[in-house]
Design a protein that fits this description.
Layout (H helix, E strand, L loop, with lengths): L2 H5 L4 E6 L19 H13 L4 E4 L7 E2 L2 E2 L10 H9 L6 E7 L5 H14 L4 E6 L4 H4 L13 H17 L11 E4 L4 E4 L12 E4 L4 H10 L2 E4 L4 H17 L8 E6 L1 E3 L3 H15 L2 H12 L25 E2 L8 H15 L3 H9 L4 E3 L1 H13 L5 E4 L9 H6 L1 H6 L13 H5 L10
Parallel strand pairs: 1-2, 1-15, 2-5, 5-6, 6-9, 9-10, 10-11, 11-15, 12-14
Antiparallel strand pairs: 3-4, 3-13, 7-8
Helix pairs in contact: 3-4, 4-6, 7-8, 10-12
């Protein structure tokens, strides 16, 4: 018996409709539209059939570019989050609906009204993933192009959320007149009345996905859940302990901040079968062109003249601040060191350029038979790597179905996942979160 099962810890499950990224295998015949509502419906209903807690949508306010042209992974488009979630509210009954909306390029009243509306339409299933950007490239699509200094991202986000909460709280009962909101700060000067009564959850569930020190502190102070990339046991436990301690320092119960890494999975009849499937999927995810584009993030140079099936570039990375890519966060702190590491790996294993990228940038988090994957998920939650997972399949919209059909029953047998939804449960109820204004238990 695992510690997770012994402790009775339930696994939180979210389903990430992946959108445009290098996880999706576009060439697979099972890969469907990322725009048609039918894809969203099928994906959401699969998650609900598997007793998941919520569906998660990311956001892209501008198509990414590399060397001045649209990145291939973005050309399918990015549908707007809230209309999709509103449509899904009508074809699901229990599943939480989490959407990413930027606090830099929107206004508090507008977003507060939109999420209050979604919460009413869905009977208390709305969640808002609060993100920020100081990216002038993204800002060119808005009248505030590039106006926000990097160090003000979270100060604006904090005021944004504070004002939104004022609007949610100012009309507690539709039988009485709404209260007036008045707020003056460094980012906002707002005065008016809410357009929608208080949401059924009080406030929608708040997600946050930033990993910087400022992002972690913002989450510890404000968020109900953190969407993190730290999925390995060692990195996961360190992140888990850090944000939980930060939450406690803000006077919160750490158990009311859920840590949910985004993870990928491959399921096979046996562990060996799953490993073979995983290797084939990684090869499909990284075409020769994609390998070049991803490696340009390390070299910060135009590498289009290099052969993906040849050796790594023989030139050194450009270490200047100017980058060849736009609209994507920089994730490499030391380009020279990373290039040296990749060269050493390529020499050691006799890898081509493309093979090196596959080896280092394409990994599935959980690979194995249904039994192996189920036990690994249970153990991660039981040993405080996280509180649950946001699953990102490599096929849309059908990619979640093998997990639902083969892993979910095992989680239920082991007491790690519900076998039915509670009647009339909101997303806060599903996640075990308090309602705003509730006294601590």
């Amino acid at each position: 018996m695992t510690r997770a099962h012994a402790a009775g810890r339930q696994i939180i499950l979210g389903a990430h409709f992946p959108g445009v990224n290098n996880t999706t295998v576009w060439s697979d015949p099972a890969s469907g539209s990322h725009i048609a509502f039918e894809s969203f419906r099928r994906f959401a209903q699969s998650a609900e059939r598997g007793f998941f807690d919520f569906l998660f949508l990311a956001e892209g306010l501008r198509l990414r570019e590399q060397r001045g042209v649209i990145h291939d992974l973005d050309v399918v488009g990015r549908p707007d989050t809230l209309p999709v979630l509103s449509g899904l509210a009508a074809v699901t009954a229990h599943l939480g609906l989490a959407g990413t909306i930027n606090a830099t390029y929107n206004e508090p009243y507008e977003v507060a009204r939109q999420f209050a509306t979604l919460d009413h339409l869905s009977a208390g299933r709305a969640a808002w993933n609060v993100v920020t950007t100081s990216d002038a490239f993204t800002g060119e699509n808005f009248r505030r192009a590039g106006y926000l200094p990097h160090d003000q991202r979270y100060s604006r986000a904090q005021e944004f959320l504070d004002v939104a909460r004022l609007f949610w709280d100012s009309w507690p009962d539709p039988r009485i007149e709404p209260g007036r909101v008045s707020y003056t700060g460094t980012q906002f000067d707002v005065a008016g009345y809410p357009g929608v009564p208080r949401p059924p959850q009080g406030h929608p569930v708040i997600f946050q996905a930033g990993d910087s020190a400022a992002g972690r502190d913002f989450a510890a102070r404000n968020a109900d859940a953190v969407f993190t990339r730290h999925g390995t046991p060692e990195a996961g436990r360190a992140f888990y302990a850090d944000v939980k301690s930060r939450a406690q320092a803000h006077g919160r119960d750490p158990e009311n901040l859920k840590v949910l890494p985004g993870v990928t999975f491959v399921i096979g009849d046996t562990d060996e079968d799953a490993r073979e499937r995983a290797a084939a999927i990684r090869a499909q995810q990284v075409s020769g062109q994609t390998a070049i584009l991803l490696l340009e993030h390390v070299w910060n140079r135009d590498l289009s003249g290099y052969d993906p099936d040849g050796p790594l570039p023989d030139i050194e990375p450009d270490l200047s601040e100017t980058t060849v890519f736009q609209g994507r966060a920089r994730q490499i702190d030391d380009r020279a060191a990373e290039a040296a590491r990749l060269r050493a790996l390529a020499r050691e294993k006799n890898l081509t350029l493309r093979q090196t990228v596959i080896e280092t940038q394409s990994r599935q988090t959980f690979v194995g038979s249904p039994e192996t994957v189920a036990e690994a998920l249970i153990d991660a939650v039981g040993t405080r790597v996280c509180d649950g997972f946001i699953l990102v399949p490599h096929i849309t919209p059908a990619g979640l179905e093998p997990f639902v059909e083969r892993v979910v029953p095992l989680l239920q047998e082991r007491g790690a996942l519900r076998t039915e939804y509670p009647a009339n449960a909101t997303l806060r109820d599903l996640l075990g979160l308090p309602y705003p204004g509730e006294a601590p238990a």
